[in-house]
Amino acid sequence: MRMKSRETVKRYFPVQTAKIEASYGLDAFPNTLTGEQTAKNQTFATILVHGLDDPGKVWMNLAPALASEGFNVWVLNYPNDQPVVESAQFFLEELCTLSQHGVRTVSIVAHSMGGLVSREMLTNPGWDYMDKAKRGETPVVKRLIMVGTPNHGSEMARVRALSELRDQSVNLFKGEFNMLRWIIDGAGEAGIDLLPGSRFLETLNHRPHPQGVEMLIIAGIMSPWQANDLERLADELQPKLPREMHPVLISLKESFQNMNLEIGDGLVTMASSRLKGVPHITVKGTHLSIIRNISSTSQRTPPAVPIIVEKLKNGNSA
Fold it and tell me: How many angstroms from the chain centroid is the CA of residue 101?
């Protein structure tokens, strides 16, 4: 019913639909270097893929940081409320267009649901990404860095109406608000896909990881206590406490560790972020603060940014 309502709106409002859909696609980040350095890096690109109901600010710190290092940066904008499968298919179509710009190799950095879109694009058996890459029809994806991705879903998807309101509010202030965007952007199917145990996640997580793609997960922890902090505190307290208090100390430490895992970054639990066989790094912060500053005037460096820049630099030199 959701998909049918979306198609009905598109059919009755073709001009408005075309205008909105023209805003989607891969765009070169405007601050990428020019001249010799661009030509040197033209065969390699870094693609940034946002998540659910993102108003476009998630890359405000990472994109300039990558551009300043000479990376050829592209940003994917897509109708992110539609089914994740449709967003992934759109991503593959856009990826193929980069071949026309001379791009042969790609790294993907994806935030939140963008990681699921990327994994689906790379592993959907019906789209033959690997065959397309071998034939040169699409650039070869060498690595995928996922930041705050709910690989096993998020209960917060049940209240996604709040994030959709934020998304459309930003368009309003930019003078780009259009009532039809609420439907053309998707009718909330992505929120259903993000629920733990959804059919989409069950299908995706039963597939093997994309062959030949180096993967990394960066997850946030809202709690001020990291695992090593708790270990150190317990070691310091144990000699000072009576022996009969040691079991209590152990139980307290385990409780704090379990709380960390359940809180995660506030939207995605630690357990949901993990994938078997994929390296996993934790940083302090919330779902957004690990990758971007809340204020455009802040001089803080989000903790995931230097990790991503360093990983991509090392990967390019390998």
Answer: 24
The one-letter amino acid at 297: T
**Dihedral-angle region of residue 153 (phi above 0 means left; psi in -120 to 50 means alpha; beta otherwise):** left
User: What is the rounded CA–CA span in Å between residue 102 and residue 43?
Assistant: 6
For residue range 164-212, list pLDDT tens digits in order: 444 444 444 444 544 455 454 545 678 889 998 999 999 999 999 999 9
308 or 296: whose pLDDT is higher?
308
What's the rounded mean pLDDT across residues 42-68?
90
Question: What is the structure's pLDDT at 190?
Answer: 84
The partner residues of 221 in beta bridges, in order of sequence, read 284
The average pLDDT across 5-32 equals 69
The answer to whether 289 and 283 have CB atoms below 8 angstroms apart is no
Q: Which CA distances in Å does 69 have to 20, 102, 122, 131, 291? A: 33, 20, 27, 32, 17
Express each pLDDT in 69-90 by its tens digit. Answer: 989 999 999 987 788 999 999 9
The more confident residue out of 59 and 38 is 59
> What average pLDDT does this structure show over 276-291?
94
Residue where the block lists tokens 């993000």:
194
